[in-house]
Amino acid sequence: MDEDDAQHHEGSPELFMFLASTVHDMKNSISVLSGTLENLLAGAGQPAAVPEPPDYDQLAQMLYQTKRLNDNLIQLLALYKDVGKPGYPFDPAAQSISELVQQVAGQARILLQSRGIALDLDFPPDAIWTLDEDLIIGVLVHAINNAIRYTRDRIRLAVRIDGDYLELRVEDNGGGFPPSLLEAGVSAMGNRRSGVNFISNSSGLGLYFSSEVAKMHKHRQRGGSIALENGGALGGGCFVLRLP
User: Fold this and answer.
1) What confidence category does residue 206 fall into, taking pLDDT thresholds of 50, 70 and 90?
2) What is the pTM of this model?
């Protein structure tokens, strides 16, 4: 195979379509598995099921890992479709913040309950903001799933209007993000791919995806952004999403 043939093979649209189709099929299978685990955990958590079955903690860990895998596959599919580029189905519309928060909380409820983690909600009940609902829910659910890794027993989803921006925060009461992750947050907004971090076992995919989604939201020459901080109301790690 000469150099031209190799380049053609590496950039083959058929190969890309095959890979995307495979990822999509994997995502669907993992979604079914996650749903089954959620049903099992929800049933085990009913009063009639007390005491909890001996494998409850193992089921909870399996659900956490399948959620992580599903997040990554969804993000890979979106990035494959060139999120933020012309032709991507970006669909901003006026959304109720209350409904947005309740949808995020609903998707995270079983996983948080199974891990013994409380979720605090703080948001303006009558606020309306223009955003892509599906993408923002995906970003926030991923942030909550990530916070589970760091929190002791409490996560806070807080939304407020700060001048011309909507600020959405996912905070935890753990020991805070390590310096490598704080730097990864800066790198994501700076369009610098930090590569695979073998210490934290993180490719930075979630941060990169979240930053791309934030940048898609624009209003009067202003764009959205993400940041990672330590502190916040619970004193731990904070994921911050700001939308104009």
Assistant:
1) confident
2) 0.79
